[in-house]
Amino acid sequence: QVQLVESGGGLVQAEGSLTLSCTASGSIFYLNAMGWYRQAPGKEREVVAQITSSGNTNYADSVKGRFTISRDKGKNTVYLQMNSLKPEDTAVYHCNFKEQGVRRNLEFWGQGTLVTVSS
User: Fold this and answer.
1) pLDDT at residue 5 tops 90
2) What is the DSSP code (8-state) at residue 8?
3) How many angstroms separate the CA atoms of 89 and 81, rounded?
4) CB 20 within 8 A of CB 45
5) Where do runs of H (alpha helix) occur along 23-107?
6) Among residues of the chain, what percentage have pLDDT more than 90?
7) Cα→Cα distances 93→21, 40, 76, 103, Å
8) Contact 42, 64 (CB under 8 A)
C-alpha cells in the first residue's frame, strides 16, 4: 500500500499562484509515475500533470505554460507549481501514484485538496 498526503490548496485570486505538494509513503515501487488530477463540481476527474520516476512529464493542454510539475525522489514528494491561475482552475486536486512495473500496476489516490480561484 502507498499512502499519499497532500497539502497546499486554498483560496487565491485570479492570476495568483499556489504550490501543491504530495508525499508518498509505504511500499513504493521504484518504477512509478506521480501526478495530479482535478475534479470540478459537476465535471469528471481529469489529469492535470504527471511525472515519471525518470523525470518525463506531461500536462493537460489547459495548464501548459502555467503549471509546472516536479518531484524530489529522495523525499518521495511531487509538487505542482500553479501560476496565472484562472477561475476555471477551481477544483479538488487529487494526488495520484501509479506503479509502472511489468507485473506491478497498482494505483493509489490522495484524499484531495481544494483549490478555489476567485475572479
Assistant:
1) yes
2) -
3) 13
4) no
5) none
6) 89
7) 11, 9, 18, 28
8) no
Q: Which of 5, 3, 18 is nearest to 80 (CA)?
A: 18
Strand-pairing partners, residue 13, are 118
End-to-end CA distance of the chain, in Å? 40
pLDDT in tens, 52-74: 999 999 999 999 999 999 999 89
Are 7 and 75 within 8 A, CB to CB? Answer: no
**Any alpha helices (H) in the chain, and if so which ranges?**
none
pLDDT band at 88 (very low <50, low <70, confident <90, very high): very high
